[in-house]
Write a structure and sequence with these properties.
Elements lengths: L3 H15 L2 H19 L9 H24 L3 H15 L8 H15 L7 H12 L5 H12 L2
Helix pairs in contact: 1-2, 2-4, 3-4, 5-6, 5-7, 6-7
């Protein structure tokens, strides 16, 4: 079974052959980020699919934030380019959780931890973070936890 990194490499080759500049540029950037992460630290290591998903999630978030900044500055063309790159990256990420699914997961985690009030936010987030990794942005999860814990 090919890894996500192998899939990115194969798709980069296909994008280059198709002369798809946006996809080529985005996939090169993603593979560069993955390679940088692999050689950082004490010893080089291959990343797991979960670690690659974290990197792609981070890069997609950067693209959304950059697009918002460009749009606020009146640079619509640059904002559109950033959003196009973000769409390419999200194509490799797991499907995002809907609001109802996320609310149900948060309620279940609150039940498991027995948390109540603002003091329990950390407990619930510690339990939920690995469960929703790559499927929901951390700020969305934290907001849902705060809402359900009444803080």
């Amino acid at each position: 079974m090919p890894t996500l990194k192998d899939q990115l490499r194969a798709d980069l080759t296909a994008a280059m052959k198709a002369r798809d500049d946006t996809r080529t540029r985005t996939l090169r950037m993603a593979l560069t980020s993955i390679s940088t992460e692999e050689v950082s630290g004490a010893a080089a290591h291959d990343l797991t699919n979960d670690e690659v998903i974290k990197i792609l999630t981070r890069e997609a978030k950067r693209r959304r934030e950059a697009a918002a900044a460009f749009a606020d500055a009146g640079r619509g063309d640059q904002a559109a380019a950033e959003l196009a790159e973000e769409r390419v990256l999200t194509g490799y990420l797991p499907a995002q959780l809907g609001d109802e699914e996320l609310a149900a997961m948060v309620a279940a985690a609150i039940g498991e931890t027995g948390a109540s009030g603002p003091a329990g936010i950390g407990q619930v987030m510690k339990l939920l973070t690995p469960r929703v990794a790559g499927r929901a942005e951390g700020s969305r999860v934290a907001a849902q936890v705060r809402d359900q814990l009444g803080s």
